[in-house]
Amino acid sequence: MSLAFLFRAVTREAVKVSVSQPVQCLHSGCQLLAADKALLMKLRKSTGYTFIKCKEALQRFENDIAQAESWLHEQAQKEGWSKASKLEGRKAKEGLIGLFVGKQAAAMVEVNCETDFVARNEKFQQLVKDVTLATLAHHQDKNENLTGYVKSVLTGDELNKLSMGEGSSLADHVALTIGRLGENMSLKRAVTVGVPAEWHIGSYVHGNISGQTEVTMGRYGALVVFQGGKDEERDTLGRKLGQHVVGEAPLSLGNVDDLPCGESETRLLPQTFLGDPSRTVAQFLKGQQARVLDFVRFHCGETLGEQ
């Protein structure tokens, strides 16, 4: 056998190996790529982060999705706080009022952002929901053993300190949302009320965001604490009173025997009732065998003190 023949034979075998081996690697690589893509889609769906960030997280933790998700949240938190510091001076007068009414307690909050576009974003609305429910939970924990009427007003600084569970605060949650949406945001204020069993809480939100059921959201919100009314009509009564407070913007309660002073009237009871201009609010309540004890009105973006 000649050396030339041997050389050609060895070369052919080498070519076979070099061709077949990458094909095998490429085939197994395709299986790995498919698995990565499935995890990537799952992580993207559960966290809302970009594909690039999700891919980086999966590679960092060798496809351990739990560790990847935890790392993504930590990074977003850091980026959010950094971005929040940079955006701190920018005006945030848009946003939403969030309102939740339970059996004997209610909470209403104002969360601000820079634009109406972000206010319509699901992530911002989730922030409003979380702030509202955390505020109500704080009220219930603080007043667990109280049985009378309890009303608490919280400033933005007080809201920021409230717990979201697992060691994070509402301030952390705001920073996280800033990092995701890239706008300045702030917690402006909140009010909570708790009532005894024979009292009731009416509410109304104007410009209600569709699709939000547990926590109602809009540009204006009102809570009305009242007694009386017919059992089957009490929800409607509370809503009508809330609509009036939002629409007519009273500043004080007044007395049932106060005489109305026209369109400039700022006391609730002598105001012309929005639902029936032939009567004052006091006259409407008398017909319903009810009385208003307190109310609160929020207008998103208003300067405090101009309500």
Task: Supply the key terms.
single chain, 307 residues, alpha+beta, Helicase, Ruva Protein, domain 3, Tetrahydropterin Synthase, Chain A, 2 domains, five-stranded antiparallel β-sheet, three-stranded antiparallel β-sheet, 10 strands, elongated, Elongation factor Ts, mitochondrial, translation elongation factor activity, EF-Ts_dimer_sf
- Beginning-to-end CA distance, first to last residue: 105 Å
Instruction: State the CATH class of the largest domain.
Output: Alpha Beta
Tally of contiguous helical segments: 9
Helix content: 40-55%
Specify the CATH homologous superfamily of the largest domain: Elongation factor Ts, dimerisation domain
> How many discrete domains?
2
> How many β strands by DSSP?
10
Kindly report the spatial arrangement of strands forming the biggest sheet: 3-6-2-1-8
Radius of gyration: 30 Å
Largest sheet: 5 strands, antiparallel
How are helices and strands ordered from N to C? HHHEEHHEHEEHEEEEHHE
Please name the CATH topology of the largest domain.
Tetrahydropterin Synthase, Chain A
Uncertain parts = 14-35
Overview of this protein structure:
By secondary structure, the chain is an alpha+beta fold. The chain has two domains: 37-87, Ubiquitin-associated (UBA) domain (Helicase, Ruva Protein, domain 3, Orthogonal Bundle); 94-299, Elongation factor Ts, dimerisation domain (Tetrahydropterin Synthase, Chain A, 2-Layer Sandwich), CATH 3.30.479.20. The chain is built from nine helices and ten strands. Strands 3-6-2-1-8 form a five-stranded antiparallel β-sheet. The chain has a three-stranded antiparallel β-sheet with strand order 7-9-10. A two-stranded antiparallel ribbon has the order 4-5. Strand 4 and strand 5 (168-169) form a beta hairpin. The longest helix is centred in the N-terminal third of the chain and has 45 residues, at 3-47.
